[in-house]
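Handoff note, outgoing to incoming analyst
You'll be picking up this chain. Sequence as last confirmed:
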Amino acid sequence: MLCHHDCVLWLTNMTSAGEKQYYALTLIKKLFDYIPPEMTVSLLYDIGCQLHQSCLKYRLLDDAILHWITFAISVFHAYGHQWACQIIYHPCKCEVFGLSDGEGCKHLWSALKHLIAPLCISGVSVFWSSTWMTETLFCLAAG
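Most recent structure output, in case you need it:
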C-alpha cells in the first residue's frame, strides 16, 4: 500500500498468485487501525470496482470504514473495464483523485523486480523467507 506520494505504507507477503481481494482488504483494515475513524480515504486499485462491489454485497468491511472510502480504478486499467465501470470508477471522474494515476505500485514493483526470483518462498524455511523478504522490501522501499 502506497500513499498519494508513492511512499510505501505497508507491504504484504503474497503467497498465492493473482489479484486476491483479501490482500487489499487486509491492507485497508490495517490503514484504518492507524488513522482517525472519520478520515476520508481515496483508494486507487486495479480492480477497485470489483473490490467495492464485493464489500457492498458480502459486507467485507464494516459500514463505518466503507462509508469513508472512495474507490477508483488506476488509469492504466480503467480503459480495459466496461464503459459503465469507467464512468463510475475512473479517477478523472472523481474529484478527490486530482491527477493521480494509481500506478505507483507498478513503479515500485518495476524497481524491485530483480528481487523476485532470489526471494521466492519454497521449502521448509517458509517463515524465515517470508519475514526476511518483507523486512528487505520494506528497507529497500524506505531507503
